[in-house]
Amino acid sequence: MRQLIVNADDLGADEARNAGIFEAIREGSVTSVSILANGPALEDGLRGITFLGNKKISFGIHLNLSEGIPLVSGLRQLTGPEGCFLGKARTHELLSEPRDRDLEGEIQQELDAQVRVLEKAGIPISHLDGHQHVHLFPAAVRAAVNLARGHRIPWIRLPQEPDPDPENARIGFPLLQEGRNFSGMAKATRVHLNETGIRTTDHFRGLYLKGRFSLSALIDSLENLPEGLTELMVHPGRVPPTPTSNPFSQFSTLDREKELEFLLGIKFRMALAERGIDLVPFPELER
């Protein structure tokens, strides 16, 4: 049996992104979402969830340590002079060095605050992942695993993905290297899950679709999909009708709309059916 979770990241980034994600949910192309607890459009996203009715959708926390304003005030290492997170490059550099107790303490505080926002809103958190995969980095991985254990979150994302077929993928070296780095950290994170009861999917896809999402690339990523449960990471959305200046506006581009259209298209669903792949949310587990 081959089952596929199509998980849309970044619910809460802005209202247009939310609208696209909910469109894909209603059409049955997205079966799971990850929520930005510090996203500027979080409240809009939470309202949208209440209108989903009996749709079988799983909801996760999209842990964020790199973009926007933290929920905890007074953070010294994770933020700059204006109190905002440091951005992707500087945050990844900071999180690459473990064994800094003050930094790890800040990370634990902020991640815990983000989870509590969703818990307070009544969102059943099925899974945990990270914006720009921050939960995998040496300084954050123990905090993320402790968070899942403490809040009884049963699933965690480990984006460990094999290299794509070089003859078909035509991937540039920077994307290939980034994907390999994240895959390596995901593999190392498995050690931290031993005897915790926290689960991860059997397989993962989506690292190598960044910046090159198309129907052919999407279908290629699903070719020869192994038996078991696979998570496919996607980033659909609509473009805001007027330009926005929030910290996540850089991600709300036409690429998001193209991605959404490919997911909504009949050819994607036909490709899944032809390959015997069933769409599912994260399975419910005893907490």
Describe the structure.
The protein has 287 residues and is α/β, with parallel strands linked by helices. It has a single domain, classed as Alpha-Beta Barrel (TIM Barrel), CATH 3.20.20. It is built from ten helices and eight strands. It has helices at 15-26, 42-50, 88-95, 101-120, 141-150, 166-169, 173-189, 215-222, 254-264, 266-274, and strands at 2-11, 32-35, 58-63, 125-130, 155-156, 203-205, 228-234, 277-279. Strands 1, 2, 3, 4, 5, 6, 7 and 8 form an eight-stranded parallel beta sheet that branches. Strand 6 (203-205), helix 8 and strand 7 (228-234) form a beta-alpha-beta unit. Helix 1 runs parallel beside helix 2 (42-50) and helix 1 (15-26) packs parallel to helix 9.
Outline:
This protein has 287 residues and is α/β, with parallel strands linked by helices. It contains ten helices and eight strands.
Helical content band = 25-40%
| Fold-level CATH name | TIM Barrel
Strand segment count: 8
Please identify which CATH superfamily we are dealing with: Glycoside hydrolase/deacetylase
Helix-strand sequence: EHEHEHHEHEHHEHEHHE
Q: Estimate the strand proportion.
A: 5-15%
CATH class: Alpha Beta
Q: Would you identify the regions where 5 or more consecutive residues have pLDDT less than 50?
A: none
Number of helices: 10
The CATH architecture is Alpha-Beta Barrel
- By helix and strand content, what is the structural category? alpha/beta
Number of separate structural domains: 1
